[in-house]
Design goal:
The chain has a four-stranded parallel sheet with strand order 1-2-3-4, with helices on both faces. A two-stranded parallel sheet has the order 5-6. The protein has a single domain, classed as SGNH hydrolase (Rossmann fold, 3-Layer(aba) Sandwich). It has 13 helices and six strands. By secondary structure, it is an alpha/beta fold. Pfam families: Lipase_GDSL (PF00657). GO terms for molecular function: lipase activity. Belongs to the 'GDSL' lipolytic enzyme family. InterPro entries: GDSL, GDSL_lipolytic_enzyme, Lipase_GDSL_AS, SGNH_hydro_sf, SGNH_plant_lipase-like.
Length: 399
């Protein structure tokens, strides 16, 4: 069993992998952020702030209306990074935390829970919109009830990624350990509910994976840790291969309804505009191109793998397109500010830099697309999650 706070040594201790771990062990996320903001200020490649086109998604069947759905999800499972981490990082030794105000100020009872947002995040909204439960608890939270476990949890960890070096540097929970926790979860459910019920829950529930942003923004373009070993084409191939391997391991653990959400145009998040967008803080085109490259490879890899898996639905979900549309048409969504976060100056603050002691807040958080310099606001997450539930779940309503 994994112990809270223990991060497995996911980096291989041989050859170039050893070199990577030794060289970059001392790096911490907060210093990567400051370094990126101070030293990588430059003009964006190409004109204008446009995030660029998204990869063309494969056609998918429409999502049935609620009254005609013939498949239900007994539980929701979330894996990945801070977009779906509902508080696991509170229980490990890492600086990548959000268990302090003003994070969580709009969460029920105004409680900071470790969610990297002013309120709920996609893991919560998806569980709520699907009628499973109003919030998705973190797996590592002490005192989870049997009902909590039966209806799903989040295994995600802020700062994690498909590249094992990404969580290693900031001491987040690697994807491999998230999978181990999932297998531990299954054994727990078998223990009090029986094997038949546990197998039913795992196979019929929705397993969502969202990662890759930290690999690109922090490990590759932030610390430049992987630029010594890979060009961006090779690195995104490595990421996609790692993602496909994770999908296969979920399948081998019993999951049969698996969705991978792609990377958004992260070159347009406030901190990347600050670090790489030049004086005008345009979107960082280079990073957006990398995100699109990864998304295309992820989609292709998952499609190929899905054709080999029996009785399983493995789906790539495009987030790049809707995110881009929101950035290019903010007024259509009721946003007045899309270039800065609500917390502090909105240029670089996130994690420890966004706190109630040193950071002022915007007057109207609902008019901002971003909460801190990296993560969207609760309102933006609600819009994105609603779109996902209404238009992207069709393949899972199979029989």
């Amino acid at each position: 069993m994994l112990q809270d706070g223990l991060v497995s040594s996911s980096c291989s201790l041989s050859g170039s992998k050893l070199l990577r771990c030794v060289l970059f062990l001392p790096l911490l996320f907060i210093f990567l952020t400051i370094h990126a903001s101070a030293s990588r200020l430059q003009k964006v490649l190409g004109p204008g702030p446009s995030p660029g086109p998204a990869p063309t998604p494969e056609p998918k069947p429409p999502c049935p209306s609620p009254g005609r759905r013939n498949t239900t999800f007994p539980a929701i499972f979330a894996f990945g990074d801070s977009i779906v981490d509902t508080g696991n990082n509170d229980y490990i030794l890492t600086l990548i935390r959000a268990n302090f105000l003003p994070y969580g100020m709009d969460f029920p009872h105004g409680t900071p829970t470790g969610r990297f947002c002013n309120g709920k995040i996609p893991a919560d909204f998806i569980a709520e919109f699907l009628g499973v439960k109003p919030i998705l608890p973190p797996y590592l939270r002490p005192g989870l009830t049997k009902e909590d476990l039966l209806t799903g949890v989040s295994f995600a960890s802020g700062g994690s990624g498909f590249d094992p070096l990404t969580p290693f540097v900031v001491r987040a929970i690697p994807m491999s350990d998230q999978l181990t926790y999932f297998q531990e979860y299954i054994e727990k459910v078998k223990g009090f509910a029986g094997k038949e019920k546990a197998d039913h829950i795992v196979s019929k529930s929705l397993a969502l994976v969202i990662a890759g942003s930290d690999d690109l923004a922090n490990t590759y373009y932030g610390s430049h840790a992987e630029e010594f070993l890979y060009d961006i084409d090779s690195y995104t191939s490595y990421m996609a291969s790692s993602a496909a391997s994770f999908a296969m391991q979920l399948y081998e653990s019993g999951a049969r309804k698996i969705g991978f959400i792609g990377v958004s145009p992260i070159g347009c998040i406030p901190i990347q505009r600050t670090a790489r967008g030049g004086i005008d803080r345009n979107c960082a085109a280079e990073i957006n191109v990398a995100a699109q490259l990864f998304n295309t490879k992820l989609s292709t890899s998952l499609h190929s793998l899905g054709e080999t898996l029996q009785n399983a639905t493995l789906v790539y979900i495009d987030i790049y397109s809707i995110f881009t549309h929101m950035i290019q048409n903010p007024k259509e969504y009721g946003f007045e500010e899309i270039g800065r976060g609500c917390c502090g100056t909105g240029l670089i603050e996130l994690g420890p830099l966004c706190n109630k002691f040193t950071s002022l807040l915007c007057k109207n958080v609902s008019s901002y697309m971003f909460w801190d310099s990296y993560h969207p606001t609760e309102r933006a997450y609600r819009i994105l999650s609603k779109k996902f539930v209404e238009t992207d779940l069709g393949p899972f309503y199979d029989n």
